[in-house]
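Hey, quick one: can you model this chain's 3D structure?
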Amino acid sequence: MKQMKRTFVLKAGALLLALAALGIGIARYAAPTGEKGAVPEAAPAAASAASGDGLSLRFAEGAPQLAYLRIEEASAYPVPLLEALNGRLTYDDNVTARVFSPVAGRILSLPVQAGDSVRAGQPLLALDVPDYADLRKAESDRATKRAAFERAKVLFENEVVARKDFEAAENDLRAANAEVERSQARLRSLTPLAGQAGFALRAPFAGVVTERQASPAMEVRPDQPNSLFVVSDPKRLWAIAELPEKDLAKLRVGQSVSIEVDAYPERRFAGQVLAIGDVLDAQSRRVPVRCAVRNDERLLKPEMFARITPESEGEKLPRVPNTALVTEGLHVYVFVEKAPGLIEKREVRLSFRGHAASFVGSGLRAGERVVTTGALLLNAELGGA
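Sure thing. Here's the predicted structure for all 385 residues.
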């Protein structure tokens, strides 16, 4: 009798467990239909199946898992020779002029603003120049000394005055000529304004006024610490970086580099090494490197922080962000979209692993679509399938 009761209890417990499991399954996969008594159908789930070189996941169209994925094409780029060097962007000094006033004076007007494009010789400001009176005085003194010299010459030729008097008049004329030349040199970069008082300080060449530190009625002088204007070509910049001593043999003048800035994380700007320093800094053990950067779209700005990466020549490999990589032991995998909804886990070999992105040496072709966001979720889904 006791044996029969025990058997009955066990069968009843198994039945309850089966009913509970059935209820959980219905609650998990049921979709509301709005009709009483309708039997809900199970939602399609991701299925995994073995493929030739790994595992794959297939998702139905509109599966919620796809909303958490970002899939991008893996483009080919030159392989870096070393990790990105920290640096900054500066003006290209070959196309940059820092304009000072050659004389003391007071600003009368400022026809240009920072950001304006200017032509070569275009007035930047109008200046009242007291030194112009010095030039007129020097010219008047020269005329007097010239007349005295002419008289002394005639008298000396007629033996009326001594040679020393003639030579003294000649020396006075030379000194007067030198004073006029000195005054003219100070005003050489200034030209009188037509139809108005003052002199114009002009742009030395065509470019853009990138900085202006002048204001109306401001007193200026030649020895002031800051320039009044900076005129430059913003389409040409320099990138300055510091190269570690151990990497000196990997870089040479003329080598291509790629430049990245925080303002445009998806863009890579092309550059070229112009010069490598000849002296090693004793404290940092680094050498300064100067690179030329084309900035035709004028997106880059001087004093931006930059990451400068020297590139190898000829070799190009697919570049993927490190978020696309899944590491399991000694092996590295990426998830590749073979077809819409079909994603394959594939083992790859890295040729270069950087701080934010890596270059795939084998296992991935340029142009294939790679999961760049959500790779870990797919790996977990695949492990539980």
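One thing worth noting: The CA atoms of residues 136 and 180 lie 8 Å apart.
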